[in-house]
Specification:
Layout: H1 9-12, H2 25-61, H3 70-98, H4 100-111, H5 124-128, H6 131-160
Length: about 160
């Protein structure tokens, strides 16, 4: 649902075997809000990757007409971006580690209006994605970003000298 162009009826029409709806109105409202956040963020992410790739191609092959150091500057920039990513991930991890619930609440108040993201423990979304799921997901995404950032920062620094 998050990456297709279907409306909320895509989820709203789902029903359990007894005919009761899988998601209540509050859950559907939240999923619509999530989609409205996820799709632009994915678009921005794709744009950033295309830009980085384009700049890399330009830096590698675009300076054939005169002697310059675009490739070294590009690599240096990627390395610095890796260090910046590592620092930001570490800062966010510390803030979330102090109180994941406060971090989770702040995240939702930053990206969503109202309290449509607060659910009963019996709601389907909470049963599918309990708080422990989000804690584990946050840890794994953070570790992947941290390792990637350190790899870029450290690896490109060593090779650029």
């Amino acid at each position: 649902y998050l990456v297709n162009d279907a409306n909320i009826d895509f989820l709203g029409s789902l029903a359990f075997s007894d005919g009761s709806p899988v998601y209540n109105a509050r859950e559907l409202l939240h999923m619509r809000d999530v989609k409205n956040v996820v799709q632009p963020v994915l678009g921005i992410g794709y744009g950033v990757w295309i830009t980085i790739l384009g700049l890399g191609i330009w830096a590698q092959w675009g300076n054939w007409w005169h002697e310059c150091h675009l490739w070294q500057d590009y690599r240096r920039g990627l390395g610095r971006g890796g260090w910046l990513t590592s620092g930001l991930v570490t800062l966010i991890a510390v803030l979330a580690g102090i109180s994941f619930w406060q971090f989770f609440t702040y995240f939702h108040t930053l990206f969503f209006e109202g309290d449509s993201w607060l659910f009963s423990y019996s709601d389907t979304l909470i049963r599918l994605f309990p708080m422990r799921f989000w804690q584990d997901t946050f840890i794994w995404v953070g570790l992947i970003a941290l390792i990637s950032g350190l790899g870029m920062g450290w690896g490109l620094r060593l090779k650029s000298k």
